[in-house]
Amino acid sequence: MPSLHHAPLAGVEPSTLYRIMALRVAVFVHEQKIVDEAELDGVDLLPTTELFWIQDDHGEVLATLRVLVEDTVHIGRVATAAAGRGRGYAGELVEAALTAYPGVVEISAQAHLENWYGRFGFVRVGENYLEAGIPHVKMLTHAG
Predict the structure, then answer these.
(1) Which of 22, 25, 47, 73 has the fewest CB atoms within 10 Å distance of its CB?
(2) Arithmetic mean of pLDDT, 12-19
(3) How far is CA 12 from CA 9, 46, 119, 143, in A?
């Protein structure tokens, strides 16, 4: 049975951290071809960043996201392994992050996922823009 976890980078077991990073590289670099930005951008090392992931009984990471807390709370790097898609894992992670960080949360959503993020209370703020060559939209929870 897959289980949900979250911790700052220092609290993640090395083999699990490796699997989280491997999943992100597989999704963002290999599948989505985002090569003009570094996937390992140093943000995970910040003490205000927390990783969320779903892991199966064999240790495989099926989905992940990260939460960065600076001036705002920002969810990013939402990724699901091909084998875990269609099972609601990304939604479970988003809900867990929103529970852990109540209040206004920001996300730079890929524009085609705007309605999906809307299910969790995110509302568009502004126009579409390009990020890593992909149309995105800024969204906030509890947006006025």
Answers:
(1) 47
(2) 96
(3) 5, 14, 29, 32
pLDDT tens digits for range 58-71: 999 999 999 999 99
Sign for the pseudo-dihedral over CA of 5, 8, 9, 13: negative
Separate counts of helices (H) and strands (E) for the chain: 3, 8
Q: What is the pTM of this model?
A: 0.93
Phi, psi of 86 (to 5 degrees): 80, 10
Short-list 114, 105, 120, 119, CA closest to 134: 114
Its sign, for the CA torsion 113, 114, 119, 120, is positive
Cα 43 to Cα 40: distance, rounded to the nearest angstrom: 8
What confidence score (pLDDT) does residue 37 get?
Answer: 77
The whole-angstrom separation of Cα 93 and Cα 79 is 10
Residue ranges of the alpha helices (H) in 1-144? 14-24, 89-100, 114-118
| Owner of token pair 């597989």 | 26
